[in-house]
Design brief:
The structure holds 2 protein chains of 2 kinds. By secondary structure, chain A is of the alpha/beta class. Chain A is built from 8 helices and 12 strands. Chain B is built from 15 helices and 12 strands. In chain B, helix 4 packs parallel to helix 13. Classes of the chains: A alpha/beta, B alpha+beta.
Chain lengths: 233, 396
């Protein structure tokens, strides 16, 4: 690659990508896809020394932790889920004001006796006694769920990994409750679920994140400063 | 391997060999449980927290497996494989030596908390002479440590049975007893639960629909369930999931009962909290426990008898009772123990890194298949810690 470049990871599709490209363009840093229109590489002609890569938002979170990219735009929820101690590998530059969503604990609406995490602890051991197993929590946020349940003194549960349609698992009988991401809560409601009063684990939005584990030679650091400067950070 | 690593490897091998010959010599059968274990048993016994500390993976057939995080459960499974026809109650005692795996955050404690460590231990199943067998296991472990060269150490003991007996004897609704037992393993949640019982036993009905509560108050469970069903229907709420309406009803009725119950007397809460404060040399602790219960007019004589029986057996061993401390709090963070617990702390490494520990775990055999509890006592030695405690002592 010759001279060291600063690798900037940008979401590869949807609103998140559009808003990210706008964010940089508004600061005078247009990003163009290089090669074919569907390529996964891009360039930032206004700054010398930047290489742009397009990736899925969850891949960006992993790449930041592993130091494969220097800087990236992705959801806070994904960065926090990926590793045990996210603050040791991620440098939070700025919240970007788009991509808003909450990671929440949701239970069936017919659980009228359960409004908060404390009630969940209570029914956890009742459930275990009655069914001879722990209640199941369907989620793709295993680490985040474990941390939050632990802080709330809940131990009688099992995590069931869910990679799609998490909100349907309670009705399908493959989990008792879920931890999932939602923006308006409408999907949860349509599936007969409600969010617990104190069940919001994280209010997430798109963030500009730097990697503490990437290799940062002085020339790359200089490029970072230039980009941050243009963004007013 | 670097020469240094080779040297350490050889030293660990020699130490393990000596310890294992000693255990075999005093009647423990050497076994080698599988390294790869089904994750399920561990997750059930320890809970989801385990996942954060264990190497869990899925094999090509889709089974969820783990690298064993300790050897006690694998040894229970081995014992069950051999003796399931007798319900696992056959008298047997095993010793083992091999690697166990626990995730540890990278950092400075790598020396005393390696991710891959060698665990060496003993387990005894089916011995109904409970206190005698507990002290024998303790004594065999202490002798083994001494033979390996450990000199400056203290022994800490605890007994989860005393707490359970205290709860049974104290005057409180059975639901609360059950709740305190469930929170026992999380001292902080336990404390806040206890506080709520003394100050605000009605907290759970706050925010529940008052019209529903007044309809089901005083109703039999079946009638209350019908009322709830109509109520949900009127609200347009579908009944979904595996947790049935009868469970929701039961929980609502319990919340109503709690709200009408008298708050837990301050003295009872204080007694429970004071109990957890007891930490003293074993003999003195026995007397202190007796005084504490007498003042509160609580009778837990059987648990105190057990305590004294153990001390009597202890005096038949070479262990100096003055070197044994009792701590009521000890054992609260160790998931599967059910009664007596102990650990050996070297002066060199301190209480954060005990060189050995063990206790009674009567319910574990049920988790691997037995239909009833099976008396089980065991203990394990952290071989890396033992080696560093004895070699640093030698250098210093």
């Amino acid at each position: 690659m010759g001279n060291a470049l600063m690798v900037l990871a940008v979401p590869s599709k949807g609103r998140l990508m559009e808003r990210t490209l706008d964010y940089f363009a508004d600061a005078g840093m247009d990003i163009r896809r290089s090669g074919s229109a569907r390529g996964y590489r891009g360039e930032m002609p206004s700054i010398h020394g930047v290489e742009v890569v397009f990736m899925s938002a969850s891949e960006i979170a992993a790449a930041l932790h592993q130091g494969r990219v220097h800087m990236g735009v992705t959801g806070e929820d994904l960065v926090r889920e990926d590793v045990a101690k996210p603050d040791e590998t991620a440098h939070w530059h700025a919240k970007l004001g788009f991509g808003h969503a909450k990671v929440v604990v949701a239970v069936p609406q017919c659980w009228i006796d359960v409004r908060g995490m404390r009630d969940l602890a209570e029914i956890g051991f009742q459930f275990r006694r009655r069914h001879g197993r722990r209640m199941r929590v369907a989620t793709k946020y295993g680490n985040t769920t474990r941390r939050f349940f632990n802080e709330n003194g809940i131990s009688d549960y099992r995590i069931v990994e869910s990679l799609g349609a998490t909100e349907g698992t309670p009705a399908a009988g493959t989990a008792e409750l879920i931890v999932d991401i939602t923006s308006t809560g409408a999907t949860l409601e349509a599936n007969g679920l409600k969010i617990l009063d104190d069940g919001t684990i994280l209010e997430s939005e798109a963030n500009l994140v730097g990697s503490k584990t990437a290799h940062w030679p002085p020339e790359v650091r200089a490029v970072e400063n230039e980009v941050l400067g243009k963004l007013g950070l | 391997m670097t020469p240094e690593a080779t040297q350490k490897f050889q030293a660990l091998e020699d130490q393990a060999h000596d310890l294992m010959s000693y255990f075999c010599g005093v009647g423990f059968e050497m076994v080698a449980p599988s390294i790869i274990q089904p994750a399920d048993v561990f997750l059930d016994a320890v809970g989801e927290d385990l996942r954060g500390r264990t190497y869990v993976f899925t094999d090509p057939e889709g089974s969820e497996l783990c690298l064993r995080p300790d050897l006690t459960i694998p040894t229970c499974r081995l014992h069950w494989d051999r003796c399931s026809r007798e319900g696992g109650t056959t008298l047997a005692q095993y010793c083992y030596n091999g690697p166990a795996f626990r995730f540890q955050p990278s950092g400075s404690r790598a020396n005393t908390h390696p991710r891959e460590y060698r665990q060496l231990g003993i387990e005894r199943f089916g011995d109904r002479d409970r206190e005698k067998s507990e002290i024998e296991i303790l004594s065999v472990i202490v002798s083994a440590l001494e033979r390996a060269g450990l000199r400056d150490y203290t022994i800490r003991i605890g007994d989860l049975g005393i707490f359970h007996e205290l709860l049974s004897a104290a005057d409180l609704p059975s639901r609360w007893r059950e709740r305190l037992r469930a929170h026992f393993w999380r001292p902080e949640a336990f404390r806040s639960e206890l506080r709520q019982m003394t100050t605000k036993p009605d907290a759970r009905i706050e925010g529940l629909p008052p019209e529903l509560l007044s309809l089901i108050r005083g109703q039999e469970p079946l009638a209350a369930e019908r009322i709830l069903s109509v109520f949900l229907d009127e609200q347009g709420v579908d009944v979904i999931g595996t947790r049935s309406l009868s469970e929701v009803t039961e929980s609502l009725l319990a919340a109503l009962e709690d709200a009408e119950a008298d708050a837990l007397p301050e003295e009872t809460a204080a007694l429970i909290e004071n109990y957890f404060q007891v930490a003293a040399p074993a003999r003195a602790a026995g007397a202190r426990l007796r005084d504490l219960m007498q003042q509160a007019d609580i009778d837990i004589a059987p648990a105190l008898d057990v305590f004294n029986t153990r001390l009597k057996h202890l005096s038949d061993t070479p262990i100096d009772p003055a070197n044994v401390t009792f701590s009521a709090e000890f054992g609260r963070t160790l998931a599967y123990y059910t009664g007596f617990v102990f650990e050996v702390v070297s002066d060199m490494l301190g209480p954060e890194s005990p060189v050995a520990g063990g206790g009674r775990y009567d319910s574990l055999m049920k988790m691997v298949g037995a239909t009833t509890e099976v008396p089980a006592v065991g203990a394990m030695i952290h071989t890396e810690r033992l080696l560093s405690a004895v070699s640093e002592a030698g250098n210093g």
